[in-house]
Write a structure and sequence with these properties.
- The complex is a heterodimer of chains A (456) and B (336).
- Chain A is an all-alpha fold and 456 residues long.
- Chain A has two domains: 363 residues, Orthogonal Bundle (ABC transporter involved in vitamin B12 uptake, BtuC), CATH 1.10.3470; 76 residues.
- The two termini of chain A are 16 Å apart.
- In chain B, strands 1-2 form a two-stranded antiparallel sheet.
- The radius of gyration of chain B is 21 Å and the shape is globular.
- Chain B has 13 helices and two strands.
- Chain B has one domain: ABC transporter involved in vitamin B12 uptake, BtuC (Orthogonal Bundle).
- At the A-B interface, helix 5, helix 7, helix 16 and helix 19 of A face helix 4, helix 10 and helix 13 of B.
Chain lengths: 456, 336
Amino acid sequence: MRKNLNIILAYAIMMGLIILVGIFQSWNVALSIFNMCLISAVMTMGANVQWGYAGLINFGLMGYAALGGLAAVLISVDPVQEAWSAGGFNILMCLWLIIAIVFLIRFILKNFEKTKIRTYVIAGIIIAGIVIIRITSESGIEAIEAVNPATTGFLGGLGLPIVFSWIVGAFFAAGLAFIVGKVALGLRADYLAIATLLISEIVIAIIKHEDWLARGVKNVIGLDRPVPYEVNLQETEWFINLVAKFNSGKLELIFNIADKQAALNQLVIEGSSVFVKLCYSGLFLIVVIALLIVTQKALYSPWGRMMRAIRDNEEAANAMGKNVVKQHLLIFILGSAIVGIAGAMLVTQDGLFTPGSYRPMRYTFLIWVMVIVGGSGNNFGAILGGFAVWFLWIEAAPISLFLINLFTVNLPETHELKVHLTESVPYFRYLMMGMGLLLIMRYRPKGILPEKIEIK
Amino acid sequence: MDFLNAIILILNYIFVPALTYGSQLALGAIFVTLIYGILRFANFATGDMMAFGTMITILITWYFQSIGISLGVLPTALIAIPFAIIFMIVYMLFIDKFVFRYYRVSKSPPVQLAMVSIGVMFVTQAVVRIIIGPSDRRFFDGEKFIIKAGEFKEMTGLNEGLAIKSSQVLTVFITLVLVSILFWFLNKTKTGKSMRAYSDNEDLALLSGIDPKRVVMITWIIAGILATIGGALYGLDKSFKPFTYFNNMLPIFAAAIVGGIGNPFGAFLGGYVIAFSEIFITYAYKKFFMYILPKSMEPETLVQLLSTDYKFAVSFSILVIVLLYRPNGIFKGKVL
């Protein structure tokens, strides 16, 4: 109990802050912050598995999150029959072609010795493959995109419940991580950072511009939900009764029947959106707690010990007979899969998939700030970082507005400086993030909750 | 005649824009490479530092314009740049003193310095957006074109026009002058040689009496000059938008690594490699083939290898390929 006091204290403060938001702003805002905190926590856990456990630097988090989101679309949207009949066959043929090319290259790599000729042949095959795929796919893609372009114009998905996409998103991200890991993991730390960042940009470019896949920048909106809709809730009997029961004290004070009914209606509308958010919170909490248990178990298992040994001294671990390359690849895949889950959860919560919104600032660097601030190598720290940084990210605007008003209290309302500062309030969050990161790195380099390894 | 038309077409749509873009990337890439070679970390704040320098240039340009100073046909920004450089150097040295120095002195691993540079990136980005706002700014004044497409057509009687903007000529000219001075400085002067020695082997350089503080300071000064001029030229040629500058960091990194990180000459060439390949691969060659092929063989499609949406993706793919086959870069990343 005593040794965990700082963890409990930190989490209590965090929850207290969110409850304060609930009391002073609204429970709706507090819960949406809480939900985003949970999603951020999943992402930071993924980054923490890679960076904290194994010391692998992955600046491509954005790409994996986007792939998770793509999975949500491909799983939950109903298939577009017209598009499938128009160009589905063509797309499938191209997929086969890609698979054939991959196997051909694998075959050449396995069976021929490394020479210049082999390299040129492989390069030739890839270029020829791209040209052939472009030519064959063109008519199919055009046909698909021409099917009712305002609402569909893509192949659609499988029409399954969206919760499945959390698992599929993990597999998508793991698949990409396998390829990236095979290609880039041999690189030195800062090269790896740059390479992963650029590869994630390529992934985003593909998702953005292949309209037949998920409508690209035209966005997919109105995804199915795993929780009830507010409108339906407002009409169900038991929910209205529940709200009435909850607020019975407040309602009893009103004697006029018409007023009472109006007040109840208002409460039901508010209550329904809070209820929906609570449902999401429940779902997300299950994921966070399950992942936390698994990652904690892994951290204290022999495998976790081996990962730390590899992180702290790669050569020594290698000399002890541990397969460093294989373990790096494994942990890179695992961490990325967790980020994929988070990406799918995010799209599930928003109910829409907007490839244009995936920017490295928000989905890579902010997550890294969370990991560093929270404490890398410590799962509780990473989760706390996700909570604290996201909370600050959202509440930065009100806080900075308050500070600006405080410091410019002597200036008249229309003073140029005051107007300018008030207009640029949204950007103070970057300032806070940067200062926070710099201060933490300087004065508490291991984060708020530093890594603590006990041998049990 | 058709053949000439085809060449002009390529010049107008590929060669001139790529040369300009390449020069802008090259300045940024040399900046990255210098920091990497001497201070030994990947500077993720590159794009935002360039945005900061450009912002100061713009503010000074506005001030000059308001008091009526101008260069006639040349853009006013040219006289603003030297003043902006001074501000920028002060800013760079300030950051170094309060942020980077601590980690350098305590010999932190490069990854930690890279993380710190992300903090600097956040702060710089915030400062730029708070001061000048996130929107698009154009600050080019003076004569816009050197040759207009229409005039060129009249002059030569060809079907294809060749337009050359004065910002393009300025960019290429200033880049060449700046880079030549830089190489002369690094190779011929004593200070430049001490920088190269420091980059090559820190301990040995210290033993032979090179003052590390001086080397670091001069590196930041050169970096400030490169960042301001590179950023201002990009802004003059296209327009200034903080978000674009942040994104430009990625092709700049690609250029630096393709050229062999730590090698300024490689970075210089790398900028052009990235720029030319981006534009070559995403250009639609239909019109070009219409000129050089006989009528019967004219292509029906656009003859485009990849659509322009994948412009960035091209340079990143090149980078990945280079990292795989020649991790030291095309021009062999030797130190400085």
